[in-house]
Structures are given as C-alpha cells and as structure tokens.
C-alpha cells in the first residue's frame, strides 16, 4: 500500500486525535504534500461525515507560524519566555545529564512525569512513555484530572465502563443530557437525538447553565451545582411510590432494590426541591416522564463529577435505568463511557515489569502541593500531552511550583504553552497527523488506525520517538525500547483478554482502518460487578467507607464566599488546544461570566460591564452577562483559559485542589467566589 505521506495531491483518510468522545473519521485533503482542507469521512458509521468547527480549522493550527520547530533552551527567567534553539543532541544530553545527576544525589523518584490525553493515541499517551518511566524508577502519576470519580461511581453500579451503543439510539424515545454540554462536547450525540426527534423522541437537559445545549432541549431543567444526586433520589422516590419501576427486571438483574425502595422514601420531592432548586412539580413531571417513556437514555456528562460528591452523583444517576428496566431495550440505558468495550493489551504496551520496585505516586490534581510541599522534593518534571499551568486546579499554586529555580522542567509540546514558559528545555512535538498510532473511542464502539498523512513538521518528534531517544541516552537497552510503532500496535492488539476485540488485530486494522467491538449487546449477562448484577446496594462501596446505597452528600463549603463557580469548557477550544490559534480565538470571541439578575442587582452589576471575580486563591476579570442563564447563587464561565494573552482569565486560579469522593478526581466546579463591579 502506498503511504499516505507519499500522496502529494489528493484525499487521505485519518481520525481525530483529540480528547473528545466522538472520535470522528476524517478525510484530509492535500496539495503539494500539505493539508489544505479537513472534512468528515462520510463512510464512518457513527460520525458520518460531519465534524466540529474546531477540527475543520485544524490546518491553521498545524501550520501556525508560532509552532515550535526545534528544541529550545531557556535563557531568561522562568516564565518570561526567552529561549534559544538548540539541537536534539544537545537537548537530550542536557536532560539525561541533569537526570543522572538528580538520580545520583536524590534518587529517581525525584523525577515526575506529568501527562494527560491531549493526543488520545495509545502510543502517544500510554506506550513508550510508560515503559521509560517504569524503567527509570521515577515517581508515577495518577491521571485523575478528567473522569475518574464518575467512572468509579458508574463502575460500582455497572461493573465497568459499558453503556448504550450510540448506533442503537435511533430507537431512543427520551434523551436526558445530564451535566453535559453536548452541543460543544459530543456533537454526534446531539445529531442522533435530533434524528430520533423525527420519530417523536424528547430531549431533556439538566444543567447549572442554560448554554447552547440547554437552549436546544425540549425541556431545560436548571439545577444547583453538586445537587444532582438528590434529584436522582427524588426521581426514584416517585418511581417507587407510583409503581413506575420494572419489578421483574429489578428481581432478575439487580441487587438491593428492596433496600433502595425503603431508603428513597426519605427523598420526597419537597425535600429534594429545597436542595436542588428544582420546583417540586418539575420533579414529579420528570419522574413520570422517565417512568413512562421507553427506551430512554441518560448521557452522563463530565460536569457532574467535577464536584466533591461527583462519584456519588454518577453512582446515583447510574441506578436509574435499572429501575425502569432500560438495559433490556435497544437504545435504552445510559452512557458515561464505553471505554471497556475497546480495552487493548495494556501490559504489553506499558511493560509494568520494567519497574524494579514500587515508587511513590502523585495525584495530578495536587501538582501545586506536590511541587511546593514535598519532604523529598520533586527535582524534575517532564510534561507532555498536557498544559498543567492552565488546566490544573489551584493554578497559581501550580505556577508558583513551576517557578522554583531548583526544579528542572522539560516540556514537549507543539507550542510554547503557558507551562512551556517555565521550562528549562522545550521539545517540539509532531501533530497526530504526522504519527502512526491507534485510537479507541470512549463513546462509540470503534477502534481506528492512524497512519501518517503528512511529513514531520520541522525538527519535531512524536512522543514515542522522544522516549526512544531518552532511553538510548540513558543506556536502557532492553528490547521494549527497540520496538517500533508497528510492533507496539501489534503487541497492544495481541493476546487480548477482551472478547469484544476478538476480530481486531494490527493486520486487520491496516486493511480496514476502523473496526467495531463485537458482541456488545449482551451486557446484562456479563456484568462485572462482584454479584454479577446491577448493584443498587454495593458491598464494595461499604468496604471503601462509602454509603452502600445511593445517598445525597452535599459538596464541601470551603469558605464563606457566597457564589458557586463553574468554569466549564468552551465551544471552539479543546481544553487549552486552539486557545492560542488566531482563527479559533476569533470564533470564540470574548469570554463571559454568567450571573443571575438577582445576584447582579444586589451587587450593582450591570450587563456587559467588567467584573472582578475572586476568592482566597486568586482572581480573574471578565465581562459579565446578566440574566437567567444560571440560578441565583451560581456563576459560570466557559473555557479553560490562561493569563498569557495579557488578560486575567486564568479560571483555575480560583478552583480548589480538593479531591473528590471517588478515584482521586478533581473538584473544579465545587469552588466558591465573590464578584464585584470594577
Ligand atoms: N468543544 C469542546 N469539546 C470538548 C472539550 C472542550 O474543551 N471543548 N473537552 C473535552 C474533554 S477533556 C471532556 S472531559 C469533555 C467534557 O465535556 P462535558 O461532559 O460536556 O463536561 P463539562 O464541559 O465539564 O461540563 C458539562 C456541563 O456540566 C455542567 N455542570 C457543572 N456542574 C454541574 C452540576 O453540578 N450539575 C449539572 N447538572 N450540571 C453541571 C456545566 O454547566 C456544563 O454545561 O469534553 C471534551 N470535548
Ligand atoms: N477549570 C477547568 N479546568 C479543567 C477542566 C474544566 O472543565 N474546567 N477540565 C479538565 C479536564 S476534563 C481535562 S481532560 C484537562 C485537560 O487538560 P490537558 O490534557 O492538559 O489539556 P489540553 O489543552 O487538551 O492539552 C495540553 C497540551 O498537549 C499538547 N499536545 C497535543 N498533542 C500532543 C502530542 O502528541 N504530544 C505532545 N507532547 N503534546 C501534545 C497540546 O498542544 C496542549 O498544549 O483539563 C482539566 N481542567
Ligand atoms: S474534536 Fe470531536 S467532534 Fe471535533 S472532529 Fe474531533 S472527534 Fe470530531
Ligand atoms: Mo477531560
């Protein structure tokens, strides 16, 4: 087969690498070897040729004049952005000399990798990098910033990240988008709901902000942050009381349904209304709709779990489809994540046996504390696939840590990000279009192969290639460091214990580009909970010191600041990706802070005026939007923004670095603030 790189003029297939559930099939149009246009692949069974605006304009990022093309060495103060180009040889030698010195003085655990899934490719995010740091004996990172709390809550109930197949949702009659801004973050889920609407399906959105997703709903239900668990319990109360539960399903497929029916008597709609801000009659109406319309599907979003009680919220909502027997129906159930249908051979890829002894592990949400407070200090940080100076909670603390003179920091990225400004050495990264890799969606059921479609940009290198160079320079001569990309994919897709990938192999993927997980329709007979049933009552949770039955636990009141602050993501950026690209900045326009009219009036704040928002951790300046988009007591902004544009927009300066109830998750949306007119 001809390599896609060799195609100078023409259209070649690809897949989107971004941290987005849709994982679209793409067609890349090339002229003279360069990308001139990106569109959706109409042959992709789920995404069917449509893609978001962000990626439609991806070429402007790939060829952005500010992209870094060579390794760089810092010559100014940390944070001020003065660098000079150096060779790869000098860069690798500088890094490994520093590391050898640190290891001899203070041991390998003084080195910490920091990464996330900005490039979702398995080789790019959990392959040669994991092999390298295992062998190095560095400290390990617990990658908790995104979805762990909710996944833990979902898994206690359902036994794994298994949910409804999006391709079956044409049958769905009721969609509940719960804590997800799907118009921006899962657009094909919206397209499926809109198609189902032609067959009479209804859409409900439950959110703290009437954003673009709330505005397209048949019914938008505003709720106070962190109270969704109580709403779900109120729905259960009505379902049991009005005999809208599916008794035969409960008996056959669940444990704890009797205990639950007693337990939810406490959560009557009157009480739940006081907690959630949802009117009592709306709680009845919602419960009756949920009890009477089938198949129904709950799309469980990330917004729910970025709270102190986020794991329990998701755990509680996850019980609902079982109460009405939705899992038996095509298009019924829920989706939090479908990742486990596509689990590959992780050990073959990451090689845990290369680690000679267990090392300390840091929760990535506590990076600021880790850099500033450790008894045995972290002396070197290696950042890739992530931009912690902006995305991590309590970001001022993180930036204070990054500014430490005695911290040797390496950042591998495509751009001089806010984090890279603090680096001693910056390494240029390839874009995903320049790499070989494989991708699995966490929403639909497909696995994709990516082969390079364009030449490497400048002197940039892929994540696996940089770790191969580092391994060689450190004298790691074991076979795992000699494997090439194709061999690594082959290993990751061989000896699979996951029956859903029984037909998938590197060879098959090379021929077909994407393949669907098989045998995914029989979830109820293969539940991986301890009891093999849907666990409405969970012994496992009890052993972990959590209530065994779904229970409403309020978020932590960490201060007396009067407003709850929810800084979620925006439409035109992907976390911080695109936030430095001119085209996307223009599309996104100026960020706003949404405040309720009552709260604005009490503070003398007028619509479109400039406000300061602050708490004990930091402050931001925003233009305000006054109205009814949020309930009293709540303020919302959109976008994970930084200050380097010269504006005070570092939203994570305000967010707490407390840890959620499950999985070590983040609590971005459980912080409190005050707002004043400037
Ligand atoms: N355009 C775009 N797409 C993206 C991203 C992006 O930055 N931009 N990021 C990607 C990533 S990494 C992820 S994890 C996903 C996240 O995408 P989503 O799953 O949509 O999650 P969030 O954007 O965190 O928040 C979703 C919604 O939760 C609401 N919310 C916050 N707290 C509560 C609450 O207590 N109750 C309720 N009911 N709602 C609440 C927020 O107002 C927001 O509308 O999107 C991915 N896709
Ligand atoms: N306030 C607030 N904060 C949040 C959130 C929120 O909703 N609100 N959401 C949280 C969530 S859910 C997430 S997932 C995190 C996301 O946090 P991150 O994953 O850190 O964010 P990104 O901005 O997606 O990516 C970071 C960097 O990776 C680089 N990159 C992309 N591809 C590659 C590659 O192949 N190699 C290398 N070396 N680098 C690459 C990009 O250029 C970018 O600068 O943010 C979290 N922070
Ligand atoms: S960011 Fe999401 S919607 Fe946009 S092209 Fe990538 S996978 Fe598709
Ligand atoms: Mo995320």
Your description of this structure?
This protein is an alpha/beta fold and 678 residues long. The chain has four domains: 4-62, Phosphorylase Kinase, domain 1; 72-142 and 343-511, Rossmann fold, CATH 3.40.50.740; 164-336 and 523-543, 3-Layer(aba) Sandwich (Dimethylsulfoxide Reductase, domain 2), CATH 3.40.228.10; 563-677, Barwin-like endoglucanases (Beta Barrel). Helices cover 30% and strands 19% of the residues. It contains 25 helices and 27 strands. The strands form seven sheets. The protein has a six-stranded mixed sheet, with helices on one face. α10 runs parallel beside α15. The mean pLDDT is 97. Bound molecules: ligand MGD (2 copies), iron/sulfur cluster and molybdenum atom. Pfam families: Molybdop_Fe4S4 (PF04879), Molybdopterin (PF00384), Molydop_binding (PF01568). Its cofactor is Mo-bis(molybdopterin guanine dinucleotide). Belongs to the prokaryotic molybdopterin-containing oxidoreductase family.
What count of domains describes the coordinates?
4
Give the percentage of residues in beta strands.
15-25%
Distance between the termini: 63 Å
Low-confidence stretches: none
SSE layout and pairings?
Layout: E1 10-15, E2 25-31, E3 34-40, H1 53-56, H2 58-62, E4 72-74, E5 83-85, H3 88-106, E6 111-115, H4 122-126, H5 128-136, E7 140-142, H6 148-158, E8 174-178, H7 182-185, H8 187-197, E9 202-207, H9 212-215, E10 219-222, H10 228-241, H11 247-253, E11 254-255, H12 257-263, H13 269-276, H14 280-292, E12 296-300, H15 310-323, E13 333-335, H16 346-350, E14 361-363, H17 367-373, E15 380-384, H18 388-391, H19 395-402, E16 408-413, E17 425-428, E18 437-440, E19 446-450, H20 463-473, H21 485-492, H22 506-512, E20 514-516, E21 534-535, H23 539-543, E22 563-568, H24 582-588, E23 592-596, H25 597-602, E24 610-614, E25 619-627, E26 634-638, E27 671-677
Parallel strand pairs: 6-15, 7-14, 8-9, 8-12, 9-10, 11-21, 12-13, 15-16, 16-17, 22-26, 23-25
Antiparallel strand pairs: 1-2, 2-3, 4-5, 4-17, 18-19, 19-20, 22-27, 23-26, 24-25, 24-27
Helix pairs in contact: 6-15, 10-13, 10-14, 10-15, 13-14, 17-19
This protein binds ligand MGD (2 copies), iron/sulfur cluster and molybdenum atom.
């Amino acid at each position: 087969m001809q390599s896609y790189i060799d195609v100078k003029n023409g259209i070649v297939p690809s897949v989107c690498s971004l941290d987005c559930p849709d994982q679209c099939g793409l067609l890349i149009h090339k002229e003279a070897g360069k990308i001139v246009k990106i569109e959706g692949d109409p042959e992709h069974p789920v995404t069917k040729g449509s893609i978001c605006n962000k990626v439609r304009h991806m070429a402007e990022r790939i060829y952005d004049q500010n992209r870094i093309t060579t390794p760089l060495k810092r010559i100014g103060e940390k944070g001020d952005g003065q660098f000079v180009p150096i060779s790869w040889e000098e860069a690798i030698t500088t890094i490994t000399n520093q590391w050898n010195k640190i290891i001899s003085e203070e041991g390998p655990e003084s080195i910490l990798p920091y990464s996330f899934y900005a490039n979702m490719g398995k080789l790019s995010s959990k392959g040669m990098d994991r092999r390298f740091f295992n062998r190095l004996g560095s400290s390990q990172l617990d990658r908790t910033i995104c979805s762990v709390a909710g996944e833990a809550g979902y898994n206690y109930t359902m036994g794994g990240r298994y949910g409804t197949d999006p391709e079956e949702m044409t049958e769905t009659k009721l969609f509940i988008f719960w804590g997800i801004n799907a118009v921006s973050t899962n657009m094909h889920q919206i397209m499926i709901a809109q198609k189902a609407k032609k067959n009479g399906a209804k859409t409900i959105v439950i959110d703290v902000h009437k954003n673009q997703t709330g505005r397209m709903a048949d019914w938008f239900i505003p709720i106070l942050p962190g109270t969704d668990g109580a709403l779900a319990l109120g729905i259960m109360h009505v379902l049991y009381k009005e005999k809208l539960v599916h008794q035969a399903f409960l008996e056959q497929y669940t444990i704890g349904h009797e205990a639950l029916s007693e337990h939810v008597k406490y959560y009557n709609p009157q009480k739940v209304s006081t907690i959630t801000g949802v009117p009592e009659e709306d709680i009845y109406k919602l419960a009756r709709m949920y009890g009477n319309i089938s198949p129904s599907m709950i799309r469980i979003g990330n917004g729910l779990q970025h709270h102190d009680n986020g794991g329990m919220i998701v755990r509680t909502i996850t019980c609902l489809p079982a109460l009405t027997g939705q899992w038996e129906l095509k298009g019924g159930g829920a989706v939090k994540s479908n990742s486990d249908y596509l689990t590959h051979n992780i050990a073959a890829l990451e090689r845990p046996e290369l680690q000679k002894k267990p090392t300390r592990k840091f929760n990535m949400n506590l990076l600021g504390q880790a850099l500033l407070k450790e008894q045995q200090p972290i002396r070197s940080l290696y950042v890739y696939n992530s931009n912690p100076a902006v995305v991590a909670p309590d970001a001022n603390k993180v930036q204070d840590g990054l500014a430490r003179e005695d911290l040797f920091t390496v950042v591998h990225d495509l751009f001089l990000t806010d984090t890279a400004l603090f680096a001693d050495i910056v390494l240029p990264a390839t874009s995903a279009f320049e790499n070989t890799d494989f991708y699995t969606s966490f929403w639909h059921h497909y696995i994709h192969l990516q082969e390079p479609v364009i030449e490497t940009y400048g002197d940039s290198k892929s994540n696996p290639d940089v770790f191969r160079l580092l391994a060689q320079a450190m004298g790691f001569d074991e076979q795992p460091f000699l494997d090439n990309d194709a061999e690594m994919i082959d290993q990751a897709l061989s000896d699979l214990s996951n029956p859903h990938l029984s037909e998938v192999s590197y060879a098959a993927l090379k021929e077909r580009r994407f393949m669907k997980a098989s045998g995914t329709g029989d979830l109820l007979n293969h539940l991986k909970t301890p009891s093999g049933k849907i666990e409405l009552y969970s012994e496992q949770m009890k052993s972990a010191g959590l209530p065994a039955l779904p229970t409403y636990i309020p978020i932590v009141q960490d201060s007396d600041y009067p407003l709850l602050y929810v800084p979620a993501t925006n439409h035109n950026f992907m976390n911080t990706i695109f936030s430095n690209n001119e085209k996307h900045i223009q599309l996104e326009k100026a960020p706003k802070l949404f405040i309720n009219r009552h709260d604005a009036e009490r503070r003398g704040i007028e619509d479109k005026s400039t406000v300061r928002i602050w708490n004990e951790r930091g402050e931001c300046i925003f233009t305000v939007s006054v109205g009814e988009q949020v309930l009293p007591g709540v303020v919302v902004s959109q976008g994970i923004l930084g200050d380097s544009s010269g504006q005070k927009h570092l939203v994570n300066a305000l967010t707490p670095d407390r840890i959620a109830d499950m999985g070590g998750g983040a609590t971005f949306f459980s912080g409190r603030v005050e707002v004043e007119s400037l």
